[in-house]
Specification:
Elements (H helix, E strand, L loop, with lengths): L2 H15 L25 H12 L18 H6 L2 H4 L3 H11 L3 H6 L5 E3 L5 E4 L2 H42 L1
Antiparallel strand pairs: 1-2
Helix pairs in contact: 2-5
């Protein structure tokens, strides 16, 4: 599910959650826009949305699989900073975030076409690049396992301490 679809689903669920009241006098007053706290949004996500909007073939919305991007895509995208409404730093963050993660690495198979911003083939994934992507997936899985083990270990530690304290008292 893409970011736009998630936002739409969130809004729909909020609307369904609010009780339907026939008497408008019973409805609570909403805070004015100056009183509402601004939602803090992930800067990488904020940078990816315009890329998906303006270049949907190169930056497809989930659940569509990601595609390998042309080498040097950042330089091409920098030509469109005004259209995207992003700074160079935001664009760099958006593209680097897009190109990390298992969805992108899964697209990096040997001889897969690399696409430019318009979705046209602009090179292929080499065997070395495909191998690197596989290594990244493997490394990420290892980090995830270690992280889960740490969390599990941390959750068990307080129980062990409580048992020791109970036994010594």
């Amino acid at each position: 599910m893409g970011f736009e679809q998630l936002a739409e689903l969130r809004d729909r669920l909020r609307a369904e959650k609010e009780p339907q009241k026939s008497d408008s006098a019973k409805q609570p007053k909403r805070k004015s826009s100056s009183q509402v706290k601004p939602r803090i949004q992930d800067p990488a996500v904020e940078a990816i949305w315009p890329l998906q909007k303006h270049f949907p073939l190169a930056f497809p919305v989930n659940p569509a699989p990601k595609v390998p991007l042309k080498e040097g895509i950042l330089k091409d995208a920098e030509q469109h900073l005004g259209l995207l409404g992003l700074t160079s730093e935001q664009l760099k963050l958006g593209i680097s975030t897009w190109c990390r993660g298992t969805r992108y690495w899964a697209s990096m198979v040997e001889n897969a076409p690399r696409l430019d911003l318009s979705g046209q083939p602009a090179g292929i994934v080499t065997a070395t690049q495909a191998m690197h992507a596989k290594q990244q997936v493997s490394r990420q899985r290892g980090q995830d396992r270690r992280h889960r083990a740490k969390l599990k270990e941390g959750a068990q530690a307080p129980a062990a301490v409580a048992t020791v304290e109970r036994d010594t008292n």
